[in-house]
Amino acid sequence: MKRSSLDQWILDKHGLDTFDREAVRSWQLARIRELIAYVKEKSRLYGGLYADLDPLESLEAFSTFPTIGSHELTERGRDMLCVSQSQIDRIVTLQTSGTTQKPKRVFFTRQDIDLTLDFFQHGMKTLCGPGDRALILFPAATPDSVGALLSTALRRLGLKVHCSGVEEAEDVFTSFPIDLVCGPASWVVEAAEKNSRFTVRSVLTSSEVLDRPMREALQHLWGAEVFDHFGMTETGLGGAVECEAHEGMHIRENDLYFEVLDANGRPPPLDHEGELVVTTLTRRGMPFIRYRTGDRGVMTERACLCGSRIQRIMWARRMERVT
């Protein structure tokens, strides 16, 4: 079993020779301190939010800082910005539930986008290699969308990449042997049901909850090894991805700091369920600091069977909200 392909990448980013949990925490604390100084100067929202807070002494103290959520993003999204509009390369608009609520808009600089591309390139090394052929079911026509970035990352790894919808997938399967399929879980299952006479070595699912019946269906229909990914637009699209052990998704710890909070906004005991809260450590355009994702999940620091000590999200699902 191969160790998570993110391990060496994260070590290199942290300037470490071996993976040490305390060294990683120290690195993350330093990045958070720099981030807070940056946003206090550059962002109207954070400048007001942190104006009277004491200097950050520890990650434990950081857990007492105010959180933000979808309300701040919809109502004061532009006040979260730390750069001018001329430095923004992409804006993603997310529709919220309900007809009267404003959409969420997430802004990215070119540097922010390149960070995601780097994560995709290194995270996918566990699933594929040079000479493989991939089918991308994520929409890829829009520049810097998930499908477009993933396609670029795979081509950098030496793969041949085809992008199509579920309905057109059969044309790709009949023309080429496909080693890897990537897409939203339900779309990939639909493609597998329509093209079950073919075999696929690896599958990456994202954007939706991958439940056990869906995973087993893909294993049965294609004989594929299935890898799940957790991410959202607010995390910069990429977030955490499974390794060959399939015991949780390894977090992009050099770019993201995750917490789990209980209903009272406090950290629950280790390995207990709560709401996932994320801080983007390296985003420059629109940083998210202690952002309540609206997803429930469980995180662990226990060593993975693959040998990695990267924190993992064991599972995640949308929270039920009363509006």
Spell the H/E element sequence: HHHHHEEHEHEHEHEHEEEEEEE
For the sheet with most strands, the description reads: 11 strands, mixed
Helix content: 25-40%
Whole-angstrom Rg:
20 Å
Within the largest sheet, what's the order of strands? Answer: 4-3-5-6-7-8-9-13-12-11-10
Q: Uncertain regions: pLDDT < 50 for 5+ in a row?
A: none
SS strand fraction: 15-25%
Question: Can you count the beta strands?
Answer: 13
Features:
323 residues, alpha/beta, Rossmann fold, two-stranded antiparallel ribbon, 10 helices, 33% helix, globular
Describe, in plain words, how this protein is organized in 3D:
This protein is an alpha/beta fold and 323 residues long. It has a single domain (6-318), classed as Rossmann fold (3-Layer(aba) Sandwich), CATH 3.40.50.12780. The chain is 33% helix and 22% strand. The strands form 2 sheets. The protein has an 11-stranded mixed beta sheet with strand order 4-3-5-6-7-8-9-13-12-11-10. Strand 5 (180-184), helix 9 and strand 6 form a beta-alpha-beta unit. Helix 6 (110-123) packs across helix 7 (146-156) and helix 9 packs parallel to helix 10. The mean pLDDT is 94.
Could you outline the blueprint of secondary structure elements for this entry?
Layout: H1 6-14, H2 21-42, H3 44-49, H4 59-62, H5 70-80, E1 90-94, E2 104-108, H6 110-123, E3 133-136, H7 146-156, E4 160-163, H8 169-175, E5 180-184, H9 185-194, E6 202-206, H10 212-222, E7 225-230, E8 240-242, E9 249-251, E10 256-261, E11 274-280, E12 291-300, E13 312-318
Parallel strand pairs: 3-4, 3-5, 5-6, 6-7
Antiparallel strand pairs: 1-2, 7-8, 8-9, 9-13, 10-11, 11-12, 12-13
Helix pairs in contact: 6-7, 9-10
